[in-house]
Amino acid sequence: MIASLRKEGIRDEKVLEAMERIPRHLFLDKAFEEWAYRDIPFPIGNEQTISQPFTVAFQTQLLQVKSKDRILEIGTGSGYQACVLYELGAKVYSVERVEPLFERTHKFLQKIGYNGIRTFLTDGSDGLARYGPYDGILVTAGSTDVPQALLDQLAVGGRLVIPVGGDNVQKMLRFTREANGQFLREEFGDFRFVPFLKGIDKGES
Ligand code: SAH
Fold it and tell me: Ligand 1 centre and the CA of 185: distance in Å?
């Protein structure tokens, strides 16, 4: 998997090493286990997916995580991306809006020893102001707009990585907060994510 990510253009060795340390098969349903290290996304229940490894690597690379950075992830899902951030030495805060998924992943992360990752059941549209400001905010669902709360919760020099667009395709955007209060906006190609939705979903366990 790591070799194929390299071939696809992922250059950040720290990101690749972090991904190499995480057993991705544990994050998938048993039925998909044997394909866990191919570069494909998988369903994780409650109509959600674990992003494909290339997307995880690409977003993480854009976030430019340094050890001790405070990072907020919107969309915990399976917890895989949160573990990658944690392996990079970040202080990780991750929020999920689907209750059964939040419960399941929270327990799972404890079980596999990632107790340091802090997870929250909440709608990420408002960010998570009480632990901010953040050095990085990573949105792992496709949004139609850029929530102002997320920009507001960036520290100076902090990066927001967010896919923005319609239902079928989103552009990967990165906003960097500058010292003068302005934001540098950069664009990085097309991706496909599950939708960024509002409110809490009680779902079905
Ligand atoms: N980062 C995840 C990818 C999960 S898919 C992983 O590594 O597995 C995106 C997730 O974002 C879904 O679980 C979805 O429920 C969640 N999501 C969508 N909109 C959200 C919102 N407004 N707040 C919090 N989570 C949200």
Answer: 23
